[in-house]
C-alpha cells in the first residue's frame, strides 16, 4: 500500500509539475508575442562608439529625428567612445536583446578582429544587421605647399624622395588609415603614417604642412578645398561627388584597387526577437527611402545608402572582415 501511495504521489507530482511547466511555457510565449506586438513602448538608445560631434553621432541623430515619430517613441543617441570603437561595440553586444539598444557602426566594426587579439565581440555572431544608412567617401588631399596636382604626380613625388613624406592617420583601423595603407601597397610608396586622435587634430598639422597627405572625410574637406589651403587629388568612391565634380575618383586616377569606402549602419544584438527586427528594419527601410532622411544625410556631407535588406548588409560585413587581415599584415600592423 505504501508503494502504491508512493507511486500515486510521484505521478501526481509529475502531473502537477508538467501542468505548471506548460503554463509557464504558454505564459512565456504570450509574453514574447506581446513584447513583439507592443514594441517599442519605451525609448530606443542608439550607441555610437565615438565621441559626440563626429559624423557617426550626427548620422545617428538624423536617423533618430526621422524614425522617432514613425515608431512613436523617443530615440536617444548615446556616445560610448574608446578603444577604437570597441567599448561601445562591446556594450551593445552584451546588451539585452529586446530591441531597445542599437549600435551605429562603421569600418572599425569589421577591422577590429584583424587588429585586436580579443576585441570582445564577434561582428557576425553577436549582431543582427538592421540597415546600412550612408557612406562618406574619403578624399585624398595634400596641402597647398605640396606641388602635386594629380595622384600620379603625388606618387611620382613621393617615390622621388623615399621616406621623406608623412601622411596623417586619424586612427588605426579607420577608413582614412586603411585607404592610405592600400594606396601605399598598390603604388609602392615609402611614406609613413603619423597617428592622431581623430581627424580634427590631423587636419591642423595637414594645413600647417607638417604632414604631406591625408585621406579626409568628404564631410570635412569642402571648406579647405574651396579656400585653396588643401588640394583634392581624388575621391575614394565609385563615382564623383556632387560637391567636388572636378575631382576624379581614385579609379579614374589609375588606382581602382584603393577601394576603402567608409560606411555607416545600424545593428541590434544578435538574439533580438525576429518580429522586432522585422519591424525595425521595415521602419528604417522606409525612412531611408524618404526625402527627409536623405536630405539630412546629405546636409551632413554623407551619401544616403540605397535601402535594401539585411542580407545585403550582412554580405557586405562578411566581405569586409575577409579582406582586412591581409591588408593589416602587409601594413605591418601588430595585433594589440
Short summary of the structure?
The protein has 336 residues and is an alpha/beta fold. Helix 6 links the parallel strand 6 and strand 7.
List keywords for this structure.
336 residues; alpha/beta; D-Maltodextrin-Binding Protein, domain 2; 2 domains; 6-stranded mixed β-sheet; 3-stranded antiparallel β-sheet; 11 helices; 11 strands; disordered N terminus
Structure description:
This protein is an alpha/beta fold and 336 residues long. It folds into two domains: 44-135 and 262-330, D-Maltodextrin-Binding Protein, domain 2; 138-236, D-Maltodextrin-Binding Protein, domain 2 (3-Layer(aba) Sandwich). 47% of the residues lie in helices and 18% in strands. The chain contains eleven helices and eleven strands. The protein has helices spanning 2-38, 55-71, 86-93, 108-115, 151-160, 175-187, 199-207, 218-226, 274-289, 291-300, 310-330; strands at 44-48, 75-79, 101-105, 127-135, 138-143, 165-169, 191-195, 214-217, 230-236, 263-269, 303-304. The strands form three sheets. Strands 2-1-3-10-4-11 form a six-stranded mixed beta sheet, sandwiched between helices. Strands 8-5-9 form a three-stranded antiparallel beta sheet. A two-stranded parallel sheet has the order 6-7. α2 (55-71) packs across α9 (274-289) and α4 (108-115) packs across α11 (310-330). The longest helix is centred in the N-terminal third of the chain and has 37 residues, at 2-38. 42% of the residues are buried.
Domain unit count: 2
Would you identify the regions where 5 or more consecutive residues have pLDDT less than 50? 1-35
CATH architectural designation of the largest domain: 3-Layer(aba) Sandwich
* CATH C-level of the largest domain: Alpha Beta
Amount of beta strand: 15-25%
CA radius of gyration: 25 Å
Termini separation: 71 Å
Helix % is 40-55%
Overall morphology: globular
- Taken in chain order, the helices and strands follow as HEHEHEHEEHEHEHEHEEHHEH
Amino acid at each position: 500500500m505504501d508503494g502504491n501511495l508512493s507511486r500515486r504521489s510521484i505521478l501526481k507530482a509529475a502531473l502537477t509539475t508538467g501542468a505548471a511547466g506548460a503554463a509557464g511555457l504558454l505564459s512565456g510565449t504570450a509574453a514574447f508575442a506581446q513584447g513583439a506586438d507592443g514594441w517599442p513602448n519605451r525609448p530606443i538608445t542608439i550607441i555610437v562608439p565615438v565621441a559626440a560631434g563626429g559624423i557617426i553621432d550626427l548620422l545617428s541623430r538624423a536617423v533618430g529625428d526621422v524614425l522617432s515619430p514613425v515608431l512613436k517613441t523617443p530615440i536617444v543617441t548615446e556616445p560610448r567612445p574608446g578603444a577604437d570603437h570597441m567599448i561601445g561595440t562591446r556594450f551593445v553586444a552584451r546588451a539585452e536583446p529586446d530591441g531597445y539598444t542599437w549600435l551605429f557602426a562603421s569600418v572599425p566594426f569589421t577591422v577590429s578582429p584583424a587588429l585586436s587579439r580579443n576585441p570582445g565581440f564577434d561582428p557576425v555572431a553577436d549582431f543582427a544587421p538592421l540597415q546600412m544608412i550612408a557612406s562618406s567617401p574619403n578624399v585624398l588631399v595634400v596641402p597647398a605647399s605640396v606641388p602635386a596636382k594629380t595622384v600620379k604626380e603625388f606618387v611620382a613625388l613621393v617615390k622621388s624622395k623615399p621616406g621623406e613624406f608623412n601622411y596623417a592617420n586619424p586612427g588605426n583601423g579607420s577608413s582614412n588609415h586603411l585607404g592610405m595603407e592600400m594606396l601605399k601597397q598598390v603604388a609602392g610608396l615609402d611614406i609613413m603614417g603619423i597617428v592622431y586622435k581623430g581627424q580634427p587634430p590631423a587636419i591642423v598639422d595637414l594645413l600647417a604642412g607638417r604632414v604631406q597627405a591625408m585621406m579626409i572625410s568628404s564631410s570635412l574637406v569642402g571648406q579647405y578645398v574651396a579656400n585653396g589651403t588643401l588640394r583634392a587629388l581624388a575621391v575614394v568612391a565609385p563615382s564623383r561627388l556632387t560637391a567636388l565634380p572636378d575631382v576624379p575618383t581614385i579609379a579614374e586616377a589609375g588606382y581602382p584597387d584603393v577601394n576603402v569606402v567608409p560606411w555607416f549602419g545600424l545593428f541590434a544584438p544578435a538574439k533580438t526577437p525576429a518580429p522586432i527586427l522585422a519591424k525595425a528594419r521595415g521602419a528604417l527601410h522606409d525612412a531611408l527611402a524618404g526625402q527627409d532622411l536623405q536630405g539630412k544625410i546629405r546636409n551632413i556631407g554623407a551619401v544616403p545608402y540605397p535601402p535594401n535588406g539585411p542580407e545585403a548588409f550582412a554580405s557586405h560585413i562578411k566581405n569586409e572582415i575577409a579582406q582586412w587581415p591581409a591588408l593589416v599584415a602587409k601594413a605591418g600592423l601588430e595585433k594589440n
